[in-house]
Specification:
heterodimer, A: about 290 residues, mainly alpha, MetI-like fold, about 75% helix, disordered C terminus, B: mainly alpha, 10 helices, 2 strands
Chain lengths: ~290, ~325
Amino acid sequence: MTAIGVGRISRRRRVTNTILCSLLGLAVLVALAPLVAVLVYTVQRGYHALSPHFLTRSMRGVGPLDKGGGAYHAIIGTAEQVLIAGLLAVPLGLLVAIYIVEYGRGTLRSVVRFLVDVMTGVPSIVAGLFIFAFWVVGLHKGFSGLAAGLALAVLMLPVVVRSSEEMLKLVPDELREASYALGVPRWRTILSVVLPTASAGITTGVMLAVARVAGETAPLLLTAFGTDGVNRSPFKGAQSGLPLYVFTQAGSAFDVAVRRAWAGALTLIVFVLLLTVIARAVTARSRVGVD
Amino acid sequence: MTAVDPPALARSARRRRATRRADTAFRLVTLGSGLVVVVLIVAIGVFLFVHATPAFRKAGSSFFTEKAWFPDNSPARFGIAALAFGTVLSSIVALVLAVPVAVGSALFLTELAPRRLGRVVGYLLDLLAAVPSVVYGLWGIYYLVPRLKPVEQWLDRTVGFIPLFHSRAGIYGRSLFAASVVLAIMILPIIAAISREIFRQVPRADREAALALGATRWEAIRLAVLPYSRGGIVGAVMLGLGRALGETIAIAMVLAAAFKVDFHILEPGGNTIAANIATKFGLSGGAGRDALVASGLVLFAITLAVNVVARGVVYRTGLAAAEGKP
């Protein structure tokens, strides 16, 4: 800063600058405070309630005032529901991303892109209502883990598309051209050159999408419905899920249930944050990735 | 051209045809997947509408004016007046709280902080979005609400002459205000992430020109950065609004359900469309569930409209939104 004006900046301008820049810094602290508060408090409350017992027992036969009981059934439910959602949303999302980046042209491509973005804004409860109206009641399938997986897939799809789209765009055109020059057809170029190049970034996107839907409660209420016992089959009968479990336990007036809610919350947050952090680490180590 | 034996020529022609067919097939598969997105959005609207019709027919125009929610009673009495009011009011309060903090921190991270620090803190802010809403709800009940009570009392004492900040019974706690604070925390990372993306698009030359002319850091922000990104910030705020309108579980947990149209946001009680669906669904009969689907259709329509406008605004600023991008 060798500007002529340095000495001449009036006191008022200097003070304004200091005050407003500090306010912006303060905004960062205010924004970070809840993150720290949520994490610290959840760990504090959840740590004492969490035990091997909690992770290996269900709620079958546990009365409202009983100690003990766990989230085993809910963890199984969440694992199955998220797996189903991923199996549906990841291949479909990838294909949509390939359409947008590699094949799409003109208005239709813009419309698809726009609707994917709009779809990220569909509230999770609406996704739940949709599957309830379409699958649970409409097709008379009843509540099930599969229905929950469908609802989560609706929420996961746009996230997978958007992140894969970004990653495919980062693949340099030279790679595609080199492949064409060798006489490799377009579809094989996409599957065996473009996708592998973008795979690290795509993996990150998928993991973030999983982390996002694994914590969803609202859609589960309307699709899996929840139950106290272990139901290993996602295709038949109501199932619980970890977020849903936290919600129901927290709704109880009794301390023992609230303790279980905190244990569940800690389990959930550890899973989701671990997934998020690992996801970022995957791209951080590869060349193709944002930032 | 050297002579090529005819069978080989035929073979390569056949192979080329097969390749072309495979290419077309793959293109059509991806095109079909793209269309699935379009179909899904339409299907959500159609299925909700079909299921909502009995409820609409039963309630008639009172669906939009009635405050109470007794769809399973006979005669049924239900409407979304109180719910829609609570949804909009809590979202507005959340925006008022979240936008300055989100935009302010985005400005600090892109304009003032060293690049490395900016990236690390930005990453931490993104983590705020990864926390599940049920955890926010639990935290809201047991941590935030008790600690907000003194704040609410203080607000009432100092600016209580404005009805908005007055509690007539002198009770505070699981109020619309508390719910809005939780909402604000939840929408903060989205607004901050998109704002950061937008500030990063401001041409460096604009900023440096301002500084070279002797502007202070703040003046450079005010003269170069903010005017350039105004449209994008409006879009970011609207995306935050869309999120706030649809947030369910955290509100269902923090807010003590009450069906009222009341501007006294410090008094406990209130409700939103989404939270009402979550709390009422399990215990509702068939008619009750139809009514909940009807309210969900209204929510879908509102959030769809907000999102379409918001994306339009963000697109026009020349930015593919930052959301969903790792």
